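Batch job 17 of 40 flagged for manual review because the log was empty.
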Amino acid sequence: LWSDQVVRVGRNHNTLLIDAQFTVGRRDPGGAPVEIVEISQPISGARTGSSLEGEHRYRTLFHAMPTSFLELDITGVRPILAEFRDCSIEEIRSTPETVERMMRATRVVDVNDHAIETFGDGDRAGMLDCVAPFWPLESYGVYVDSVMARLNETPRFTRETTMTTLRGRPVHAIFTASL
């Protein structure tokens, strides 16, 4: 069904990086999952070391580029979209209340210094919430399309749009979302 790397705390309170695969073990008569089976294994120390090195490179680029980066978590959007599985994308896009719910469910996990200057007006803490303040009504369609691209595992989504700062100042932007 899906696989991911997860962090676990070992019995000695040490942090472990785990490769995990999850599948549906059993389903009820209606087809809904009743049991999820996890198969996991710790990632080797050498791989962990290379992962840490890659993380360092990523962090250096993340903060050094003169581009605004926001790391987002869209997992909260999936249950909202599940409510509309029989609707078209156009129906979702044309319902501002639904788009706003999706935006409030999209969490900002991290931002770089340039994003804080451009969109946060210097307020890092204020940016680490949901994405709703950054999307004016006229740009809701771009937000929906970017979420759909991510859920469809499109490697890169780019659109020219208007976003807003925490204080509501419009910012013309080239918005790019990638896997």
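Reviewer: the log was empty due to a logging misconfiguration, but the result itself is present. The beta strands are 2-9, 15-27, 33-42, 70-73, 107-111, 156-164, 170-178. Unflagging and moving on to job 18.
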